Amino acid sequence: MISNNKDHEALEYLYKAILTLETPEEAAEFLDDICTVPEIRAISQRLQVARMLYTNHVYTDIVSETGASTATISRVNRTLNDGREIGGKGYHTVLERMGEVPGDKKKKDK
Predict the structure, then answer these.
(1) What is the pTM of this model?
(2) Which of 3, 63, 80, 99 could be stapled to 88 by a disulfide with Cβ–Cβ 3.0 to 4.6 Å?
(3) How far apart are the C-alpha atoms of 52 and 65, rounded to whole Å?
């Protein structure tokens, strides 16, 4: 996805900027500045979908609770399940650190 060195440098700068945030309030302020409201909602929704998939909720429950489309749920599910070497690690790391999934749990059913 990174097409050139400038893109890579810009992404690295963004990642480092995110790592400087220390509180939910700082994160909210930063995201409010850098993202549109729909972008923040989409990111938040995808994280909620990932959390629910990790806890083995069915699609209908996820749609009902999050308002996500089945296409979004399917995309997140593919990210979590397909090629663990290239996808899903970010969701797993965040959810594990937030205490949503045990550190040694591998997604089994979905």
Answers:
(1) 0.81
(2) 80
(3) 10
